[in-house]
From TrEMBL:
Annotated GO MF terms: hydrolase activity
SUPFAM superfamilies (UniProt xref): Nudix
Gene3D superfamilies: Nucleoside Triphosphate Pyrophosphohydrolase
Family to which this protein belongs: Belongs to the Nudix hydrolase family.
The protein's name: NUDIX domain-containing protein
Keyword entries, A-Z: Hydrolase
Length: 299
C-alpha cells in the first residue's frame, strides 16, 4: 500500500554572532541521538513565513529576532515515522532566512513546554562546520549557502590637532560596546546619510560625538577597511568602510564631550600624539593614515 502523503512548510533562521551560531537541540521523540537544528518550525495556516520564524525563535530561544528579506528554500522528500508511530510519505519545504538578535540580548532559553526543542545554545561556528556538534542535514545545507550580509558604508571623518604639529594633541573618539572595534580609538565622524553633503555630515557627526562645531577644510585622503564582525544592530556583516578624511579646525581651548547618548561613541579626548605613535593608545589604521597625510600636506 502507498504511504499516506504529508507535506509540511516550515521557516528557519541562520543566526550568527561573533563566530557562533544559535542552534536548538531536538527532543528525544524526534531523534534518539543528539541532534541540533536551526531555530524555527512549521507555519500555521495563513501565517507569513517571516512572522512564523520570529514566533518560533521566541518560543524556542526566548529571544526577539530581526529577520532579513531574502530567503533560501530547501526540499526534503523521504519516508518518515510520525510521532504516533505511523509511517508517511513526507515532503518538507524549509524556508531559511538570515536573522539576528541584539548584541545585548540575554542568554537563550527554551520557552515552549513539551515542544520539539529541549535545549538551545550558541555553538562555535567552526565546531558546527566540522561536525563536532551533531546537526541535522538542514544546518549544513543552509551554512553552505550562507554568507555574512554585505554592507558598504561611506563616512566623513575629521583630523583635528592642536599644539605642535608633530608633537601636539589629536582629537579622538572611543568606540562603545555598540560599535565595531569596541575600546579602540578613531577619528571623530560617521556615516553620510543619503543625499547629505560629506562636509555637512562631518559637522553633524562631530557635534554629536564631541559637542563642538568644526571648520571643515580640505580632503586629506580616502581610506578604506574591509572586515567581518557583529554590527551594532547584532547582525553579522561583511563590512566595507570607506572613509573620507578631512582636515578640520576646532578652538584649541574647547572641552570635548559626548552629546549623543547610547551611540557608538562613549568617550572623546585630546590625545597626545606620542600615545598614538608609541602604540600605548589603541587606534584604528585610519588614524595613522590621516596623520601621515597631514604631514605630507605640511611639507
Amino acid at each position: 500500500m502507498a504511504l499516506p502523503r504529508r507535506q509540511r512548510v516550515a521557516a528557519y533562521a541562520v543566526i550568527v554572532r561573533d563566530e557562533r551560531i544559535l542552534l536548538c537541540k531536538l527532543a528525544p521523540w524526534i531523534t534518539p541521538t543528539e541532534q541540533w537544528t536551526l531555530p524555527g518550525g512549521g507555519l500555521d495556516h495563513g501565517e507569513d513565513p517571516r512572522d512564523a520564524v520570529i514566533r518560533e525563535i521566541s518560543e524556542e530561544t526566548g529571544l526577539d529576532a530581526f529577520v532579513g528579506e531574502q530567503a533560501r528554500v530547501y526540499s526534503a522528500h523521504q519516508a518518515r515515522v510520525r510521532r504516533d508511530g505511523r509511517r508517511s510519505d513526507y515532503h518538507a519545504l524549509r524556508i531559511v532566512y538570515d536573522a539576528w538578535v541584539a548584541p545585548d540580548a540575554p542568554q537563550p532559553r527554551v520557552v515552549e513546554v513539551d515542544g520539539s526543542t529541549v535545549a538551545t545554545a550558541w555553538h562555535p561556528l567552526a565546531d558546527v562546520l566540522d561536525g563536532t556538534i551533531p546537526t541535522v542535514p538542514l544546518v549544513q545545507q543552509a551554512l553552505a549557502d550562507w554568507a555574512p550580509y554585505r554592507m558598504q558604508r561611506v563616512g566623513a571623518y575629521a583630523l583635528v590637532t592642536r599644539g605642535d604639529p608633530r608633537d601636539g594633541d589629536v582629537l579622538l573618539v572611543r568606540f562603545s560596546a555598540k560599535g565595531f572595534h569596541t575600546g579602540s580609538w578613531s577619528l571623530p565622524g560617521g556615516g553620510i546619510d543619503h543625499g547629505e553633503r560629506p562636509a555637512n555630515a562631518l559637522v553633524r557627526e562631530v557635534e554629536e560625538e564631541c559637542g563642538m562645531t568644526p571648520d571643515v577644510g580640505e580632503l586629506l585622503l580616502v581610506h578604506d577597511e574591509h572586515f567581518s564582525g557583529t554590527a551594532p544592530s547584532g547582525r553579522y556583516e561583511d563590512f566595507h568602510a570607506v572613509a573620507l578624511v578631512f582636515a578640520a579646525r576646532i578652538d584649541a581651548d574647547a572641552v570635548p564631550k559626548v552629546v549623543e547618548v547610547d551611540g557608538t561613541t562613549d568617550l572623546v579626548e585630546w590625545v597626545p600624539r606620542r600615545e598614538i605613535t608609541d602604540g600605548s593608545r589603541p587606534v584604528l589604521d585610519v588614524v595613522h593614515a590621516a596623520l601621515q597625510a597631514g604631514e605630507r600636506r605640511r611639507v
